[in-house]
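Please produce the structure of this protein holding S-adenosylmethionine.
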Amino acid sequence: MSKQKAIATPNKTKEILNKYGFSFKKSLGQNFLIDVNILEKIIHYAGINKQTGTLEIGPGMGALTEQLAIHSDKVVAFEIDQRLIPILNETLQVYSNIEIVNNDILKANIKEVIESHFDSGQKIKVVANLPYYITTPILMKLLMDRLPVSSFTVMIQKEVAERMAAVPNTKSYGSLSIAIQYYTHASVVMNVPKTVFMPQPNVDSSVLHLEVRQNPPVNVLDEDFFFKLVQACFGQRRKTLRNNLVRHFASILNKEQIESFLNDVEIDGTRRGESLTMEEFASLANVFYSGLRKQ
Ligand code: SAM
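Below is the modeled complex.
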C-alpha cells in the first residue's frame, strides 16, 4: 500500500472541491477536517492497531478514512451523500482495505455489515467525525443495538460531549449522561478548535472516547422504565426530585405512595435529580417498578 499526500490539508481539500464542483451540505453536517495533526491524535486516542477493524460514519472526502486505512486492518465507512462516492473512490484509490457503504447509518443494518466485512472475533472500534445534527441518535442506536464494538472515539459538539461524560452535581449532568454511561465509560479526551474544519462549524468541538462496558454498572429490573424515570427526574431541573416524580406518576400514584418509595430506598425527596448517582437512580427505578407491578 503506497502512501500519498494526506487528504486532510486545506490545499488538497480545496483542490478536490474544485475538481468535482462539490458544495457542502449544511443539512448533512458536512464540516471536513483539514488538519492531519488532529487526525493523528484521534487515531492515538482510539487505540487502534493493524489487527483492529474500524467502522467510520461519514467519511466525507476521506480525510479520517485514509488515516484509519493506514493504521488499522480494515475500514468500513457509511456515507449518506451519494455525491461523495466518486470522490472517495478517487481519493482513497491507493488503499485496498476500505469499504464504502452508501447508506444512512440510522437505517443501515450495521450488525449484518460487521458480520460480512470483519473476521468473527476481531476487535472493532468506531472512529468518526460525526455529523453534529444527529450525534445523539447515532450513538444511542449503536449502543442500544449492542453491536460487537469495543470503543467509540468520536468528534462531536463540545457541549454534547461534556453532557455525555458528566458526573453528578454538575451543570452538564443529565439523562444523556446516564444513558451513555450505562453502556460505556465516557471521557472527553481533547477539545478541538473550529479552525481545523472546512467550512468552520458554529460550535466548538471535542473528541469523546467511550469504552463499551461488558456489563451494565447497575442492575435494573426494566431498562425502558429506568431510562424513563431518569428522564422524569431531570424533567424540570430546578424542581425537587419529589415534585418531578409526583408530576410524572400523577395518573397512577399519589404523593404518599411516592414518599414511601423514596423512604424505602432512603433517598431524600427534597434533593434534585442532578445530585443522584446512577446507583441511586437504579434503586429508585427498581422500587417504583416493583411497587407498580404489585398494584
Ligand atoms: N469524516 C470526514 C472528515 O472528518 O473530514 C467528514 C465528517 S463530516 C462532519 C460528517 C459526514 O457525515 C459527512 O460526510 C456527511 O455527508 C455524513 N453524514 C451525514 N449524515 C449521515 C448519515 N445519516 N449516515 C451516514 N453519513 C452521514
